[in-house]
Amino acid sequence: MIVKIDSIGRITVPKKYREEFNLKPDSEANMLPLPDGIGVSLFRLTPRCANCGKEEGIKKFDNILLCENCRKVLRYAIT
Ligand SMILES: [Zn+2]
After folding, report:
1. Considering 33, 34, 37, 69, which has the largest number of Cβ atoms within 10 A of its Cβ?
2. What is the pLDDT of residues 11-32, one digit of tens each?
3. pLDDT tens sequence across 31-67
4. 59-71 burial: b if 16+ Cβ within 10 Å, else e
5. How confident is the model at residue 78 (pLDDT cuts 50, 70, 90)?
6. Is the same domain home to 77 and 40?
7. Could you tell me the CATH number of the domain that includes residue 36?
8. Number of independent structural domains in the chain
């Protein structure tokens, strides 16, 4: 998909990709250069469960990000 860079360097992420990758206003993303100087890639920065990868209900559990379900399983396992 071709996008334009505006006069102050901004790029609009097309709606298709915002929806597909759950990019919402004020989402954070990491822009990394691709090898050989051919361009950049954009990666969404969304906290995910360290165990299952889920994005909903994430909280720290003993300094590890876990979803509600994994926190319950872990609490059950350690008691
Ligand atoms: Zn989980």
Report:
1. 69
2. 999 999 999 888 888 888 889 9
3. 999 999 999 998 888 888 999 999 899 998 888 899 9
4. eebeeeebbeebb
5. confident
6. no
7. 2.10.260.10
8. 2
Residue 63 sits at φ, ψ, to 5 deg, of 70, 15
Q: CA–CA separation, 54 vs 44, rounded Å?
A: 14
Distance 60 CA to ligand 1 centre (A): 11
pTM to 2 decimal places = 0.54
CA of 42 to the centre of ligand 1 (A): 24
What is the 3 CA–ligand 1 centroid distance (Å)?
36
If asked whether residues 21 and 7 sit together in one domain, one would say yes
Cα-to-centroid distance, 1 and ligand 1 (Å): 33
